[in-house]
Amino acid sequence: MSAAAGRLRRAWDHDLAWSFRRSPVVIVAALLTLVCVCGAVFAPWLAPHNPFDSGTVNLTDGFTPPAWSQGGKSRFLLGTDDQGRDLLSTIMYGSRISLAVGVASVLFSMVLGVTLGLISGYVGGKVDAFIMRVADIQLSFPPILIALLIDGVARIVLPREAHDQIAIYVLILAIGVSSWVQYARTVRGSTLVERNKEYVQAARVIGRSQASIMLSHVLPNVMGPVLVIATIHIATAIITEATLSFLGVGVPATQPSLGTLIRVGNDFLLSGEWWITVFPGAALIVLVLSVNLLGDWLRDALNPKLR
Amino acid sequence: MPAETLLELVDVGREFDVSRPWLNRVLEGEPRRSLQAVDGVSFSIRRGETLALVGESGCGKSTVARLIVGLYTLSRGRILFDGADLADPGSAPLRRRMQMIFQDPYASLNPRWRVRDIVAEPIVAHGLAPDAKALAARVAELLTQVGLAPEDGERFPHEFSGGQRQRVSIARALSSNPEFLVCDEPTSALDVSVQAQILNLMKDLQQRLGLTYLFISHNLAVVAHVATRVGVMYLGRLVEVADAKTLFERPRHPYTRMLIDAIPDLEMSGKSRTPVAGEVPSPLTPPPGCAFNPRCPHANERCRTERPVPLELPGGRIAACHAVQEGRIGDL
Fold first, then answer.
1. Which superfamily does CATH assign the domain made up of B5-97+179-282 to?
2. Which among A197, A199, A201 has the least Cβ separation from residue B71?
3. How do residues A242-261 score in pLDDT, each as one tens digit?
4. Which of residues 197-226 of A touch B (CB under 8 A)?
5. Residues of A in Cβ contact (< 8 Å) with B121
6. Nearest-CA residue of chain A relative to B97?
7. What global pTM score does this model have?
8. Contacts of A198 in chain B (CB under 8 A)
9. Whole-angstrom Cα distance, residue A243 to residue A288?
10. Is the Cβ pair B71, A206 closer than 8 Å?
11. Nearest residue to A221 (alpha-carbon basis) of B231, B155, B113, B117
12. Residue A215 lies in domain
């Protein structure tokens, strides 16, 4: 009991916790992120309707404005879309997909980038030169273009039904591949520093293999900046996913993400049904902004020079 | 007791490529350049003794240490450990029998590992403990042996002072039961008061465990305290090897004399002292002949053209100097 209390006490006194408590903006951002994530993860239990259950969706409910405006129904707090689906529920289910794609693609690009960066920095020489030139070439293209390219190739190669089924995985792959470079460069830089430190040389004298030195010695010491980049990247990845879905090349309309919802609503924006696109848009902004603020805070809090 | 040779270096050399990048070389028509960090060094270390290598910064003494433990590969020459060539493919098991203590106790311990894991690493890497219980017992024994408490194993390196960290470093080096330790300036990053403690610990461990040390240092006072024999290096070459007592009392090589004259001592206080003359030449463009000739008061034409070879002199000492070998400068 006292050990657990002591651990809690130490966590509360930790530098990170201290800088967290000191900044109201970060606390608000963290709360909003928590609300968004909980709303998305527990959507099947929290959402007032199931927008994908065709039995409960009624076409005659279509274009219902938000509950507080004229003609609104209290059943649909944020109104409904063209097919009569409750917007609040669709947003909750949609952010589920947005978050899943964002987090999964960040994990994918992190694993890819960290692995390549670690090898590049530790092995050096021609391997390093090759990986870094590939990274340079990729950096000369905008990431969204690369994601579009990968998505486009997948569309041509795969039959239509198959593509719809694995569209989310293709999207994760596309976004992941389009952003590994930043991880690779960061990790390579830190690896170059760590590799020459005496504790790595000590491990070599002890006789451990290159792979085990990389994994057990270098990797834990280069992960700090990577986690910061990853947090900020989650927001970027969600935006990229939304952009691709908005352009119609992302997730299929049967599993709408926030981007898909914005695109669908965009068709009705000029005919007066503003809520169909504005609410998913606002949800996207809140989610991305709060994740971004958290990432920025983490970066500053972990940077010893700014303390 | 016949002194058995444990480690022998035969004409060991190491070059480093310090050329500019390929593109610059092509565009500016520059040739490849290499730096001769270690240039034909031969010596041997007998079992149970402490051989100290001394010299100014950049003379290649640390490179020799790294060549021996295999952190660098040899450009030429051979290193024999207990009669076996360390370059042989089957020599990997020999590596367990030699370990290294590093200069900077703040950089040589992984900041994210607990001390018990750091000390256990060689044991685990070589599979020397049958189970977790034996491992924990061995780590506790090692920590006690270097003057730390077994409970210290739970702590992280940043919770220790420099001297304590160096003790952890020594415990790690000892954990695979080595016979031979390469110590690369193990005390130069420590406070003077702590230096003595660490040196005495190392001496004590040497007696108890029968260790052999190669001790790299630029601090002659430290060397006088620990070494049984001393090798003096200058610009990648070994210029003199002798028993510590002989070397400090009657140095032969002009460079050794210059170094020893530079040691502050109480009898000299207040008097003006001969400063060490000149600078070490760049190892990129070593002077022809004897590397020391631009700074040597005894240099003549032969010294400027012909490179002296290390020759054994009476009394078991070795010096690479024309003036000494010709008898131009006598014994002190």
1. P-loop containing nucleotide triphosphate hydrolases (3.40.50.300)
2. A201
3. 888 888 787 877 778 888 88
4. 197-199, 201-208, 217, 220-221
5. 203, 206, 208
6. A206
7. 0.80
8. 102-104, 107-108
9. 13
10. no
11. B113
12. 19-45+77-306
Task: Give me the interface pTM, i.e. the ipTM.
Answer: 0.85
Radius of gyration of chain B (CA): 22
pLDDT tens-digit map of B8-67: 999 999 999 888 888 888 888 888 888 889 988 999 999 999 999 998 888 889 999 999
Residue A131, min C-alpha distance to chain B (Å):
18
Q: Do B121 and A206 touch (CB under 8 A)?
A: yes
The answer to the question of residue A234 being in a domain is yes
What is the enclosing helix (H) or strand (E) of A127?
helix A125-139
| A190 inside domain | yes
Is the separation of the CB atoms in A283 and A88 below 8 Å? Answer: no
Query: A26 pLDDT exceeds 70?
Result: yes
CATH 3.40.50.300 residue ranges of chain B are 5-97+179-282
| Cα gap B270→B248, rounded to integer Å | 22
Structure confidence at residue B271 (pLDDT): 57
Residue B1 has pLDDT above 50, yes or no: no
Residue B2 has pLDDT above 50, yes or no: no
- Residue B71 with chain A: CB contacts under 8 Å: 201, 204-205
Q: How many residues does chain B have?
A: 332
Q: Answer whether B35's CB lies under 8 Å from B84's CB.
A: no
